[in-house]
Amino acid sequence: MTHKLLFRGGTLVTAAEMFTADVLVAGEKIVAVGRDLVAADADVVDVHGKFLLPGGIDPHVHYDLPMFDTVSSDDHYTGTKAAAFGGTTTVMDFIPQDWPTLEAAVQAWHTKAAKAAVDYGFHMNITRWDEATRAELPRLPEWGITSIKVFMAYNGRLRLQDGEIFEAMRLAREHGILTMLHAENGDVIDILVREALAAGHTEPVWHARTRPAWGAVDAVLRGAMLAAQAQAPLYIVHMNTAGGAEMLQYAREQGLPVMGETCPQYLFFTEEHLARPDGAKWICSPPMRSPEDNALLWHALEQGWMSTIGTDHCPFFFDGTKPILYEGEEIAIPGKELGKDDFTKIPNGLPGVGDRLPVLWTEGVVKGRLTPEQFVAYTSTNPAKIFGLYPRKGTLAPAADADLVVWDPDLKVTYGVAVAQHRTDYNLYEGWELTGFPVQVYLRGRLIVCEGEWLGQRGQGRFLHRGRPQIL
Ligand code: URP
Ligand code: ZN
Ligand code: ZN
Known about the structure:
This protein is of the alpha/beta class. About 30% of the residues lie in helices and about 25% in strands. The two termini are about 40 Å apart. The mean pLDDT is about 100. One zinc ion binds near residues 60, 62, 312 and 314.
């Protein structure tokens, strides 16, 4: 017999409204939402005084990503488990184009991701623009992948030229694929890095000083120009600058199908953090900027200029020579210490997938910058719509997957590495006092996190064959 759960008396939050209702789940699906539901054969979960949110959807994570001489420290199990602890039940991970064919890359990534503990989709990085890639790209939707990522930076490694990006966007659009863009100016970065190293500047802060904010502003506008010319939708990832957000909004006001994603780190931290003795902890690309950028990005969220908040979760150990205990076993993975004498050798990326919802709730909702509905829109519903998962994911409605988060708005948590479940040795939000936290997390009707206890399993996550992207 199908197992039923009746969530009684919670305050439901969707992207559109907040209301008190019961939710009936049968097996993996929500089957009814309404007042005073009756289901004699259901187990009742009393959620009076709690919020019920659709499971978070993080549109931007990197698990098991090779970088420089190491690999990001969360794999598809540890990183999805960490996501679940923070209320996120769906993630979207990027496949590097590191195999001779796209098909081989996709197959290899399926093998790695089979241990995921929450549901997952893939984006395909396009970092070679050759005849074989052009021929294979139209097959991505057949494999359930309806988004690609291209790069205007990382010269000699991942970057495509503007003309190549233009062609890729046009071809992607013809096949119902959304193009995602890493918007920085690779040429200028290259020169500034060379000059900084030649002058003996090796400290982490030079990572930010060699990646000018204006390069991101320029790249966002260039992306918009390419979208206009290709008549193709564009999603600009990890937006970090005020000027970039203004360019995004300018493009949107012209009617262009351009969408933006920002990440929590760009709302809270600045170049000053990179200047600290432990500044390597904050190294990611694009870098943290200024308090004015933080403020404008909040404004962009309040005003709806942005479409999503992802994390760009890509953690490394701060000191990968010292093991941590993970599930009772010691593990150490080379990390930020690789660049102690040269900032260009510090692996780029930060932990964040589990931090996103709790940190944004306190800083966004509790502090009155975001409504609960905006919180759900940015962290769940909009990613589901944009990446072809809606209404299966991203909402609380009959026929949706029963990915539910029971959120205690009164729970106070002193956050940090001991609470977050990422497989790394530090957390950017160490010591932050949070109000509001997920107390139960359900993946397709199954309780996987209960009051800080892990009830989930390696491999229980499912690959999501995604549909056509929507433009928001
Ligand atoms: O520093 C970062 N963001 N690492 C991941 C790669 C990317 O560009 O998203
Ligand atoms: Zn990027
Ligand atoms: Zn990324």
